[in-house]
Amino acid sequence: MSESKGSFGVAGSGDTSGYSGLVRTKVTPGSSERPFGGYFDEVADELERAFPEFGAAIEKVVIDRNELTLYVKRDHLRAVALTLRNTESLRFEMCMGVNGVHYPDEKDRELHAVYELLSLTHNRRVRLEVALPDSDPHLPSLVEVWGGVNWHERETFDMFGIIFDGHPGLTRILMPDDWQGHPQRKDYPLGGIPVEYKGATIPPPSERRTYR
Amino acid sequence: MNPMDNELTPRDNEFGLAKAAAESAPILDQSAGSFFKQLQGFWVTFIMQFKKVNTVQYPEVKEPTAERFHGRHQLNRHPDGLEKCIGCELCAWACPADAIYVEGGDNTPDAQFSPGERYGKVYQINYLRCVFCGLCIEACPTRALTMTNEYELADESRSKLIFEKEDLLAPLRAGMLMPPHPMYPGSTDTTYYKGEVPGADPSQGATTNV
Amino acid sequence: MGLEEKLPSGVVLTSVEKLAGYMRKSSLWPATFGLACCAIEMMAAGAGRYDLARFGMEVFRASPRQADLMIVAGRVSNKMAPVLRQIYDQMAAPKWVIAMGACASSGGMFNNYAIVQGVDHIVPVDIYLPGCPPRPEMLMDAILKLHENIGDAKLGSNRERVIREVEAAALAAKPTIQITGLLS
User: Fold this and answer.
1) Disulfide: which of B81, C21, C107, C126 matches B176 by Cβ 3.0-4.6 Å?
2) Is C51 within 8 Å of B59 when comparing Cβ atoms?
3) Parallel, antiparallel, or unpaired: how do β-strands A138-140 and A163-165 relate?
4) Chain A residues near residue C112 by CB distance under 8 angstroms
């Protein structure tokens, strides 16, 4: 449970003024209990069977909006990924990409990396989420497991500063090579210049409006 | 054993290029039927010579735009010439690009620019920033700001593309009077918004016939 | 450049100017610099309905050496800026630049860290064209305005005089922030 102020995400009030008078309560879904429903139980069972350290590696299992998310501890990420790919009954051959999320309020879990997996064999989807502290943003690279995440890991590094150990060439992919900082973090300033008029200026949006 | 069971071995190259090449049909077809197919294609090219020319001779012939085309803005007037803008800055707030700058001013009995208390003293639109989205039009509570279909806006310097109030104001039509002038006799601002003001009254000043 | 640089200003130079201006404006070859949605309108301007070939401009050159006009169509990111400047430097003089659309002219609604706030920060712009994106007619209008300027371009000693005058006028001009207008 957390509160956010700003102009976005509040429905029904009719107020779109952006004066940050709107307050929205965000609920982070907690851990789910069995039965999970659908194929989620089967996936969890199979993973537990194929990966005996399931209890130590998976922090929690979350079912939200009919989607399965496994919160993995980062020391076990590579092993879990390999098991999900190689086990015949799981067979997640495809990784749709790595996304980063920045939660500045979560102490020592500021950065999250999210992997979307797809099993073409069984037509199933699973999401892996790894939390890591801002002070030590290292994560094992999964390029050897799924070659396609190469550029996604570079992008996540570029935008969030998560360092993927073992990546073949972890350089910036979107921003210029000499760029300072990681733009998708919440504390990164929006930048911009004042808009010029004859005899006046309007300050840039980040100073004039609330985008939080 | 399935090759994917090895820890890091990639799958066998069973879907490789060699297989694709073996399965695909030959592209080069040199039969007589192919010749007629080509003729069929050239026939389309040939017949196009006799079709009507699609080109619009732009600088000489100007095709009208769609009726609701988003072009240059215009600040409208009431029938007697008073400005509709009340300087509320809602358009500036709605603008996603911060392309509108408004400063309101107070109407005084000596200088009445719009019905009611306030008028837009400074009104500038930075056309370099404007994205012609029309959100300012939707935000305007008095329909003071609308968009015209005029689109020929290119210019040589940045300062020329910052339009001021006199560039944006609608021209005076017949029966209108150049503000500042007093409001229509016996009227309030409500009368204006109900559309009950027919035009400038002689008591408001000398009417200009434009 | 050549002979016209050495001619004394007078009737001969003026007629050479007119001839050169006419030829330059009648075969202005644009470099393709489509970066975003404006490029679609730029392509439409080159296609049948609007037909830039009527102005001798149908050849959009991908090679900057063969181009005279750079139409910067779309938003320029900070990463693209050095590339754009390099393309401009590779073009042979005389060369012109049109900043097409709000983003190229000033950054448009992308007032943030990633976008160059107007290409005039990196290359000299001759014509600013507002619109998001401008319709092909607007682009052609900008091009025709540029054609007028090119047709009137001066050469040799006249050119030096014009440069001095423009320089003096620019130094004397007030910056936008000091133009008060209705502000008091």
Assistant:
1) B81
2) no
3) parallel
4) 190-192, 205-206
Closest CA to B53 of C138, C137, C51, C40: C51
Question: Could you tell me if A195 lies within 8 Å of chain B, comparing CB atoms?
Answer: yes
Cβ neighbours for A142, distance < 8 A, ≥ 6 positions apart: A77, A78, A81, A95, A98, A115, A149, A153, A164
**Chains contacting A (3 or more CB pairs within 8 Å):** B, C
Contact C122, C84 (CB under 8 A): yes
Q: Inter-chain contact A195–B158, Cβ cutoff 8 Å?
A: no
| Number of helices and strands in chain B (H, E) | 6, 5
Domains of chain A (ranges; CATH) run: 29-182 (3.30.460.80)
SS (H, E, C) chain C: CCHHHCCCCCHHHHHHHHHHHHHHHHCCCEECCECCCHHHHHHHHHCCCCCHHHHCCCCCECCHHHCCEEEEECCCECCCHHHHHHHHHHCCCCCEEEEEHHHHHHCCCCCCCCECCCHHHCCCCCEEECCCCCCHHHHHHHHHHHHHHHHCCCCHHHHHHHHHHHHHHHHHCCCHHHCCCCCC
Q: Give the distance from residue B156's alpha carbon to the nearest chain C alpha carbon, in angstroms.
A: 5
pLDDT per residue, tens digit, chain A (212 aa), is 677 665 566 666 666 555 556 777 777 777 887 788 888 988 888 888 888 888 888 888 888 888 999 999 989 999 999 999 988 888 899 999 999 999 988 888 899 999 999 999 889 999 999 999 999 999 999 999 998 899 999 999 999 999 999 999 899 999 998 898 899 998 888 888 888 888 888 888 877 765 44
Of A169, A170, A168, A190, nearest to A181 by C-alpha is: A190
Q: Is C131 touching B (CB cutoff 8 A)? A: yes
Q: A with C: how many residue pairs have Cβ under 8 Å apart?
A: 47
